[in-house]
Design a protein that fits this description.
There is one protein chain. With about 325 residues, the protein is mainly alpha-helical. Helix content is about 85%, strand content about 0%. It is built from twelve helices and no strands. Helix 2 packs across helix 6 (about 140-175), helix 2 (about 30-55) packs across helix 7 and helix 7 packs across helix 12.
Length: about 325
C-alpha cells in the first residue's frame, strides 16, 4: 500500500503533463490540427455512406472521392449562402457605428450627470464600440496575407478526409479489440448529426418565415445563419439572438424591435425542449455541462472551427465508450 500511493501520484502527474503538452501543441499548430480534425469529424459522419457504396461494389477510391466532392460542395454552398449575409453586415457597419455612437453619447451623458466619469473614461467608452467593429473586418492586405494559409488548410482538410475514408477499414482493423465499437460509434454519430442538421434546417426555415411576417430585412440570410449557429450549442443561438436584437434596434424604433429576438428564443426553446429530444432520444444524451465546457474549450483552442468540432468529438467519444462498454457487458454474459 505504501508503494502504490507514489506510483498513482506519478501516473496522475504524467497524465496531466501529457494532456497539457497535447493541448499546447494543438493550439500552437492549429493550422495543421484544426482542418485535419474537422476532416476526421466529417469523415466519421459520412463513413456510413461510404461503407454502403463499398457494399454496392464501388471501389474505395471512388467512394472516398465522391464523399470528398459532396462534402466540399456542401461547404462551398454554405459559404456562398453566407456571403450575402456578410456583405449585408459589412454594408451596415457605418449605420451600426452611427447608432452605437448615439448610444454611447447617451450613456456618457447619463454618467456625466452622476459626476463619476472622467473625460478619458468617456472617450474610451465612446470609441471602444467603433474600434471593435472596424477591427472585426480584415483589410485587403490582411486578406491577401491569409489567402495562402487558407489554401494550405484546405489541402490538409481535403487530403485527410479522402485518405481517412479510403483507409478507414484498414485503420480500424489494426485495432481489432475496438473495431466493432468504432464502427458502431461512427453509425451513431452519423445518425445523430444528420438528424441535428435536419432539425437545424427546420429551425432556419421557421425563423425565415417569422422574420418575413415581422418585416426584418434579409430573412433568408438570417435563417441560414441560425441553421449554422445552432450547431454550436448554447453559444450559437445566444449570438443569433443578440444579433437579431441589434438588427431589430437598427430597423425599428419601438418595442417592436424585441419581437425578432423573442421569436427566435421561442423557436429555439421549442426545438431544444421538444423536437430534438423526440427525434434524437436519450441514446447519445451527453451531460449539458460537458457539452458547454467542451464548446468553450474548442472556441478557446481553435476559434469558431474549434467550437464546431468540439461537440462531434465529445459525442463520438461518448458513443465509442458506450458501444465498448455494451460490448464488454455482452461478452461477460
Amino acid at each position: 500500500m505504501v508503494d502504490q500511493a507514489p506510483s498513482k501520484l506519478v501516473r496522475a502527474c504524467l497524465i496531466t503533463l501529457t494532456f497539457i503538452a497535447v493541448v499546447a501543441a494543438a493550439k500552437e499548430a492549429q493550422n495543421l490540427f484544426a482542418p485535419a480534425t474537422f476532416a476526421l469529424v466529417l469523415g466519421v459522419v459520412m463513413s456510413p455512406v461510404a461503407g454502403r457504396l463499398e457494399n454496392l461494389g464501388v471501389p474505395r477510391t471512388v467512394s472516398a472521392a465522391s464523399a470528398l466532392i459532396v462534402g466540399a460542395a456542401v461547404i462551398f454552398l454554405l459559404i456562398v449562402a453566407l456571403g450575402p449575409l456578410l456583405s449585408a453586415l459589412i454594408d451596415q457597419v457605418p449605420r451600426i457605428q452611427q447608432q452605437f455612437r448615439g448610444w454611447m453619447n447617451e450613456l456618457t451623458f447619463m454618467l456625466r450627470s452622476l459626476g463619476g466619469v472622467t473625460f478619458d473614461v468617456e472617450r474610451t467608452i465612446s470609441q471602444s464600440g467603433e474600434d471593435a467593429v472596424e477591427e472585426a473586418i480584415p483589410s485587403v492586405a490582411e486578406a491577401l496575407w491569409l489567402a495562402p494559409n487558407l489554401f494550405g488548410q484546405m489541402l490538409i482538410f481535403a487530403g485527410t478526409l479522402f485518405f481517412f475514408l479510403m483507409t478507414r477499414d484498414d485503420i480500424y482493423s489494426a485495432i481489432p479489440q475496438y473495431r466493432v465499437a468504432l464502427k458502431q460509434a461512427d453509425r451513431a454519430v452519423s445518425h445523430y448529426f444528420v438528424t441535428i442538421a435536419l432539425i437545424n434546417l427546420g429551425l432556419g426555415v421557421s425563423l425565415c418565415g417569422v422574420l418575413i411576417l415581422i418585416g426584418l430585412p434579409n430573412p433568408m440570410l438570417w435563417g441560414a445563419a441560425a441553421f449554422l449557429a445552432n450547431f454550436v450549442l448554447y453559444l450559437g443561438p445566444l449570438a443569433i439572438m443578440f444579433s437579431l436584437l441589434l438588427a431589430g434596434l437598427l430597423t425599428f424604433n419601438s418595442a417592436y424591435a424585441l419581437v425578432a429576438p423573442a421569436s427566435f428564443l421561442m423557436l429555439n426553446a421549442i426545438e431544444a425542449q421538444f423536437v430534438t429530444p423526440a427525434l434524437v432520444g436519450k441514446q447519445l444524451k451527453v451531460n449539458p455541462l460537458v457539452v458547454f465546457l467542451s464548446i468553450v474549450f474548442g472556441l478557446w483552442l481553435w476559434g469558431p472551427l474549434g467550437g464546431i468540432v468540439a461537440l462531434p468529438v465529445v459525442v463520438w467519444v461518448y458513443a465509442l465508450v458506450s458501444a465498448q462498454s455494451k460490448r464488454g457487458t455482452a461478452s461477460e454474459h
